[in-house]
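Annex B. Sample input.
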Amino acid sequence: MIENKHDEGTMLRDLFPNGVYEDVPGFCKAATAKEIESQGWSLNPGRYIGTSKIAERGPGFQKDLREKRSELETLTNEARSLEQRILGTLKDMFEEGT
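Annex B, continued. Sample output.
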């Protein structure tokens, strides 16, 4: 099982090298009450943070994205397999009880 491989401290130092908060497109934004009101009081982050451009994320982004896709496919297959095992176990339990 693959756990979170990110070091949050490193990520925070990379995003905020001076230790001071600033808006980061695609990651975080301090929205004003007026901006939130204009969005119908929705707190959906996507309405405020937007997306960062792939080019801004560095040359390794596409490689990382391919790896994440592969990891997602692996985890999805594992989830399907576990689901089948659970369903089989439940089926066996109920058939034994009848």
